[in-house]
Amino acid sequence: MAKGDPDHRIKQWLVLMNNPSISPNKFSVPGWHISGEGELPQVLSDKVILTPPYPGNKRGAIWADTKVSQPEWTADFDFRATGPERGGGNLQIWYTKEGQAYIGTSSIYTVGKFDGLALVIDTYGGRGGSIRGFLNDGNTDYKTHHAVDSLAFGHCNYAYRNLGRPSHIQITQQGNSFEVRVDQKPCFRSNKITLPTDYYFGVSAASAETPDSFEAFKFLLTNSPSSPREEPQRSQQPPHDSDQQSQPPPPPPSQAQQGPQSLDLQNRLLTISQTLDTLTRELSNLAGTTSQQHQDIQRAQIPASQLKTMDQRLQSVEQILTAFRKESDARDYGTQFAKLQRALEHSHSSLLENIPESMGTIISTRSPRMGFFLFIVIVFQCLLAASYVIYKRRRANAPKKYL
Q1: Which residues 6+ apart lie within 8 Å of 245 measured at CB?
Q2: How many Cβ atoms from other residues are within 10 Å of residue 338's Cβ?
Q3: Model pLDDT, residue 324
Q4: Helix (H, G, I), strand (E, B) or coil at 323
Q5: Is the pTM of this model over 0.90?
Q6: Which residues contact 95 (CB under 8 A, 6 or more apart)?
């Protein structure tokens, strides 16, 4: 098939991990746009880590730069999710008109209005994991909708966390038939869905506070008008002279035949390497912070002369306290306190003995005599009686007037 053929082109630009290395420089993936919130996704030789295992509340996305121009296609996506027992997060596979410019790192709950398909992988419903499909024509605002989960048109249960191997999702669009398969098993399908052309593929992931780490291993888009069930028969036919059958990578079962133990060991080693890189960056940041704090402490350090003056003052205070303690130990204050107590007791007893006699003497000598007081009272009463008698006589002898 010629290079300018659209079928050839559609196989080339949407491939992750179809080659030994998906990135020439470990910073970007050719034909894809990488973005993140809080931390950019990490690109390794065979995978893209959309959300790190630590810390949480991170978002990452990878979007194709080219639109899909074919009406019928099959998309194969390999991913893995690892995390603690109560970890959380979600993964979205998008096929939308807007692409990176509008959706970016959004999830199905924060995307707002979009035009296209969203395949959501999360732990909705507490069933250990599920895969749900959502469609929108650009009129429904998912961000403000009161029940986003009720808008799903299809779903299946799938426990995807901590499997120790990549999970494989296959999305097929053929005419009016739309089907989703997971690990070569049917998930859900519909005969009433026809997705438009000239839309973008993308993958976004978001982690919770206790995070799940989402890793993307492969995204392969092929233009195959045959159903997945016909692929084994097609593989038995001779390749003839067509380049189309030689260029797509082998299906996921061939990856499982490569040795699941060695693949799992390699993935674990890569995860450990990523964790060590994260710890190295954190230690480097900590070293920079410690150096800055050391410099601040040095700038705030007290001069030696001031410290010497403070030391001399403290020594003087210590000498004074030592001398006072020696003086207090040398003197016998107990004997002096005993003498003082005896003097107070003697003064108290003397006051108790002398006060009654002194008070009697003062009362007998200083108080006036009772006879003299009685004499004054009698004389006063006699004067009153004499005055009354004189008043009566004068009134009796006074001339009377008659009218």
Answers
A1: 234, 239
A2: 11
A3: 83
A4: helix
A5: no
A6: 68, 116, 117, 118, 171, 195, 199, 200, 201
